[in-house]
Amino acid sequence: MxxxxxxxxxxxxxxxxxxxxxxxxxxxxxxxxxxxxxxLTAAERLARTASGRVxxxxxxxxxxxxxxxxxxxxxxxELPPESKKSVKKAIxxxxxxxxxxxxxxxxxxxxxxxxxxxxKFARKYFPAESQGVTLCAYEGKKRRVGEWRADARxxxxxxxxxxxxxxxxFRADNELVVGDVCLFELIDKKRKIFNxxxxxxxxxxxxx
Length: 208
Description:
Blueprint: H1 2-13, E1 17-22, E2 25-30, H2 42-49, H3 52-64, H4 72-75, H5 81-93, E3 100-104, H6 107-110, E4 116-117, H7 119-125, E5 130-139, E6 143-154, E7 162-165, H8 167-173, E8 181-188, E9 193-199, H9 201-206
Parallel strand pairs: 5-9
Antiparallel strand pairs: 1-2, 3-8, 4-7, 5-6, 6-7, 8-9
Helix pairs in contact: 2-3, 3-5
Pfam family, one: B3
Organism: Linum trigynum
Subcellular location: Nucleus
């Protein structure tokens, strides 16, 4: 009996792996941290507690390595179904070899049109105070629609916030609205070139 109890305890403590299939590619996320006593980030707490298809989608996003803002995990559950479907499509567009950021268009992104990159991502790939950026827009994964120039500038050393100047022009030209999802894929770290995959929420609503 003691041996059986010990085996059960050992099994309970083993880290689990949750697999996800995406176009034949296997994604897996070790949940060692999620089942430990280590302090968890907001994203990790949501990954541990969310259930059903929404929980599966968020864990898949976390496993993909795509960066999100610190506020994303708290707003994810409140996203409309069509935006969650766009998040799923964005993960399908992601190339693991390229650093990427996922941003769901909120009111501030659309009007007045302000876009900033997550601090951790920005500090790693944008060390200079001001750098030119090229944004190559794609409808979905493959259909390229154009190229725009922008400037990435730090707001201040204290806030550690990197803003895209000239973002309003990109947003207007591509008719982005609240709820749309953009995956910023950094394909050239030296020249700061992004592929921006646009996943429109209204198309998911139309196809429901």
